[in-house]
Amino acid sequence: GPAVLLSLGPLALLLSAIGVWQAVRVPDVKTLEITVPGLPQAFDGYRVVQLTDLHASRLLNGAWMAAVAERTNALDPDLTVITGDIADGTPEARVADVRPLGELRARDGVLAIPGNHEYYADYRRWMIAYRALGLRMLENEHVRIERGDAALAVAGVTDRQAAAFGQAQPDLAAALEGIDPDIPVILLDHRPGNAGENAKAGVKLQLSGHTHGGQILGPHVLTQWANNGYVSGMYRVGDMQMYLSNGTGLWNGLAIRLGRPSEITLIVLRARR
């Protein structure tokens, strides 16, 4: 009756308040260890910080981004990667909000890929802006990271949204071209849905975002259905492992999280003993 409805009103308000707070707070660090087959001993303990789905906006502004950058740098990363959806809006509108990304520091640099949101405003100028901040954008290419004689390859692909904007579509073959077959490959791919093909191509570890973990526990199953069954966390796909982050930020069009917390992800790579 009416009494139940009256008690549900404050509960709904409380849940939405918690949901918005969970959406906009600076994320906690989530730490995991991933054993990568074929990883040289020289890379045992290698620290990768993954940021994804930052979605710089009026909601998640420069102060928020600066706090994320500070928390990321405090993890003493060997490598920092950003797996797409860095900003929403034009480079002019968001310049102050993305500037703190230029403060990111890691021993082997900061690598990034575009997500679908990079294409909506002005893809070409966003790529220039990100590079000016010191982000190395991997558009269907890879970098080789060395520790003495040992090496690791980190490859990155573009997003299929490129097709609608006349930009380069994802090309895994191009991204992997020239990588020595005995060097383990970590792939940055914004969407998790291509995990099957990426595994067949010999990728050892895929890092993705895009789903925001579904944002809300329960309705997250819709997001899962839309992304080939992938929504949050670790997956084994053939001989490949995939880590799918819940996202560091989120799109301001749906600024609520419940039971799917945002994260700054510290991944410690382990070599098989």
* Overall 3D form: globular
End-to-end distance, in Å?
63 Å
Q: Count the beta strands.
A: 12
Task: Order the strands across the largest sheet as they lie in space.
Answer: 1-12-2-3-4-5
Largest sheet: 6 strands, mixed
How do the SSEs run, as a string of H and E?
A: HEEHEHEHEEEHEHEHEEE
Radius of gyration: 19 Å
Question: How large a portion of the residues is in β-strands, by DSSP E?
Answer: 15-25%
Please tell me the overall pLDDT. 93
Number of helices: 7
Low-confidence stretches: none
Q: Helical amount among residues, as a percent range?
A: 25-40%
Oligomeric organization of the protein chains: single chain
Structural class: alpha/beta
Task: Write a structural description.
- By secondary structure, this protein is α/β, with parallel strands linked by helices.
- It contains 7 helices and 12 strands.
- The strands form 2 sheets. Strands 1-12-2-3-4-5 form a 6-stranded mixed sheet, with helices on one face. Strands 6-7-8-9-11-10 form a 6-stranded mixed sheet.
- Strand 7, helix 5 (172-176) and strand 8 (185-188) form a beta-alpha-beta unit.
- The radius of gyration is 19 Å and the shape is globular.
- The mean pLDDT is 93.
